[in-house]
Amino acid sequence: MARILLAEDDESMRRFLAKALENAGHEVVPCGKGDEAHGCLKEDVFDILLTDIVMPEMDGIELARVAAELDPTLKIMFITGFAAVALNPEVSAPREATVLSKPFHLRDLVAEVDRLMTAA
User: Fold this and answer.
1) Which residues touch 73 (CB under 8 Å, ≥6 apart)?
2) In the Cβ-directed half-sphere of 76, how many Cα atoms lie within 13 Å?
3) For the domain 3-113, what is the CATH superfamily, name and number?
């Protein structure tokens, strides 16, 4: 079981992803904005940050960068329709971050979370 911080500004997508991950046995703390997720990261410990890239107030790339500074062991996964942005070497996203491009199947998300948790 992973403890996952989910940062997704689309409420229906956030609820949908949280439910799927909870059904797979994971604990999920959902946040609707990047700065809200940043506050959670400063106050609690998570195994995985699962974040959209395009969000108001603090985007997912900045959130991931700050998260990696706060907890270098935190695993980071972007869920986005803008994979090229996350993969661009000129962007300051953590290099170890995983990118899952939208649209994706929920089983792919769960499998990737499981893979991250079993990776050394």
Assistant:
1) none
2) 27
3) Response regulator (3.40.50.2300)
Average pLDDT over residues 19-43: 97
For residue range 98-112, what is the model confidence (pLDDT) as tens digits?
A: 888 888 899 999 999
CA 22 vs CA 68, 71, 88, 92: distances in Å: 24, 23, 31, 30
Q: What's the mean pLDDT in 65-79?
A: 94
Which pTM was predicted? 0.89
Beta-bridge partner residues of 28:
4
**DSSP annotation of 9:** S
In the 8-state DSSP scheme, what is residue 24?
Answer: T
DSSP of 44-68: S--SEEEE-SS-SSS-HHHHHHHHH
Residue 6 is encoded by which pair of tokens? 């989910």
